[in-house]
């Protein structure tokens, strides 16, 4: 069987991560690269191979599957174009900015026979896969979740709301998707937000209620420092707490006595610890086997819906209910 030819649009940080991973998958090859800064595509080609293209059109001629690895605001236009050219698409998070754009991209993805996968890598990270396995054997009652960042300065565009769509789109959306993955569909939320360091809302407190009765608190700050762990989920079950610390550790404490089991992935290579390797393999699996990818366009749409609902709840001061 011929190899899946990968085309990477946007050869910055994450484009190179995915490209490096595909150089190790014998079912795939790097077919083509395109970046609006040509030197970046040339530098990437020296490391991972692939034809450096001078336009998107040219790239489409040299690949079967497209990875959209450009800044947030460009995802919808590029991903729709790739779908229209009959390509399988891997779209980095966020799926879109705003509900209207998200609906457009969802419609486009659903109209295609090809694979459309969204880059919510954390679902594949061993720590979160383990959490899901443990929650499969015990019912979660409630949780406290945190997803912080140290700054919105690196890369520079992460602090530009016109590019990111807002802090929740840039960072917090990862664990918004994770909540659905671990705990199910959300019924309603209340949210508070404030602005301190950046010219946008940059500090959030949210309470979520789920359809199955589960509920959780969620805190997210853009300037909390990079103190470990910048992301954490603490889940409370029947005489049991399971907590995660970034993608490094999971601690599980059960019963009436002080005790705990610790699982660690601290020595696992980052690209696997963060789930990038697994999500890239899953994309090729879906293409070759003609099956639905683990994170679909609908999942991408729902993560955007959650972000928009939190901004809406803060703006109106009202709780938001999902029907
Ligand atoms: N899933 C994750 O964990 C994860 C991690 C990092 C970044 N991301 C997402 O990936 C995307 C890229 O982030 P990054 O950190 O790699 O950014 P980056 O700035 O390092 O790279 C982006 C690249 O895209 C290029 N570019 C910009 N507009 C373009 C266009 N219209 N056509 C072609 N190239 C264009 C830029 O020149 C740059 O080289 C963002 O949406 C970000 O949210 C996801």
Précis, in short:
This protein is an alpha/beta fold and about 325 residues long.
Describe the protein's architecture and organization.
There is one protein chain. By secondary structure, the chain is an alpha/beta fold. It has 2 domains: 4-122, Rossmann fold, CATH 3.40.50.720; 126-275 and 304-321, Dihydrodipicolinate Reductase, domain 2, CATH 3.30.360.10. Helices cover 36% and strands 26% of the residues. The chain is built from 11 helices and 15 strands. The chain has a 9-stranded mixed β-sheet. A 6-stranded parallel β-sheet has the order 3-2-1-4-5-6, with helices on both faces. Helix 4 (75-84) runs parallel beside helix 5 and helix 5 packs antiparallel against helix 11 (297-316). It is globular. The termini are far apart. The mean pLDDT is 97. The structure holds nicotinamide-adenine-dinucleotide. The site of nicotinamide-adenine-dinucleotide (NAD) has 23 residues, from helix 1. Residues 9-15, 34-37, 40, 69-72, 74, 92-93, 119, 121, 155, 170 line the site of nicotinamide-adenine-dinucleotide.
Note the beta-strand portion. 25-35%
Q: Structural class of the secondary elements?
A: alpha/beta
List the total number of helices.
Answer: 11
Tell me the total number of β-strands.
Answer: 15
CATH hierarchy: architecture of the largest domain: 2-Layer Sandwich
Question: What would you call the shape?
Answer: globular
- Assign the CATH topology of the largest domain: Dihydrodipicolinate Reductase, domain 2
Give the strand line-up of the largest sheet. Answer: 14-13-12-11-7-10-9-8-15
The CATH class of the largest domain is identified as Alpha Beta
Small molecules (ligands, ions, cofactors) in the structure: nicotinamide-adenine-dinucleotide
- Name the CATH superfamily assignment of the largest domain: Dihydrodipicolinate Reductase, domain 2
Helix and strand run: EHEHEHEHEHEHEHHEEEEEEEHHHE
Rg over CA atoms, rounded to whole Å, is 20 Å
Helix content: 25-40%
Number of domains: 2
How far is it from the N-terminal to the C-terminal residue, by CA?
Answer: 45 Å
Low-confidence stretches: none
